[in-house]
Amino acid sequence: MSRQAVIDRMIAFALEELASGSDARRRGLVRHICLRWPEAPALSVVFAMTSAAATLEDTLRRDADATEVAPLAYRLAAILAADIYAVEGIGQRPAKAQDLLHFWRRVDSYFLDL
Question: What is the mean pLDDT of residues 23-50?
Answer without folding.
Answer: 97
